[in-house]
Specification:
5-stranded parallel beta sheet, globular, two-stranded antiparallel sheet
Length: 169
């Protein structure tokens, strides 16, 4: 029921290609009917037609600064927030998702660059569903506690769902 799915992968070209290939295989029937488009954000056209935006889009992005900036630009340029139901899947969320740096000698934290970009993306898409995927969910719960006056807040999961793993896992 989503119009656009954003899949955020670990910082690896091979993993981006693997994810794009897997999505093209999974959604082949719909791709063949021109109902779904699967794209690597770094290979995406800068000008998307209205027809292309009417299709269901699966956009894969490496969690790397220039990839995330292009993704944020895409969302802004095409007013995705106002017109589309979105799903963000943060794959490997424990290693390259939400993370903090502690300022040396102080009690303050800052969001790491990629974490900040993921958070900016989430904030720019009202009502977007955000799913963190990881084999080590405990890492998502071990975020620092912040006091009420802090501008940062922990982004802990609302719930954890364990799913069966594949035989090649």
């Amino acid at each position: 029921d989503f119009d656009i799915v954003f899949i955020l992968t670990k910082n690896s070209k091979a993993l981006v290609q693997q994810t794009v290939t897997r999505m093209k295989k999974e959604f082949k029937i719909f791709i063949d009917k021109y109902e779904v488009v699967v794209t690597d954000i770094m290979k995406a056209n800068t000008h998307i037609s209205g027809y292309q935006l009417e299709q269901k889009n699966i956009i894969v992005s490496k969690k790397e600064k220039s990839n995330m900036n292009k993704l944020l630009e895409f969302i802004k340029n095409y007013s995705i927030n106002r017109s589309k139901k979105c799903l963000i899947i943060d794959d490997e969320a424990d290693t390259t998702g939400i993370g903090y740096n502690k300022i040396k000698g102080e009690d303050e934290f800052t969001l790491r660059t990629i974490s900040s970009k993921v958070n900016e993306m989430r904030g720019s898409l009202d009502g977007c569903v955000f799913v963190e995927v990881t084999a080590t969910p405990y890492a998502l719960y071990l975020q620092p506690e912040f006091n009420d006056s802090s501008s940062l807040q922990a982004i802990k999961p609302m719930k954890t769902v364990l799913v069966p793993y594949g035989k090649e896992y």
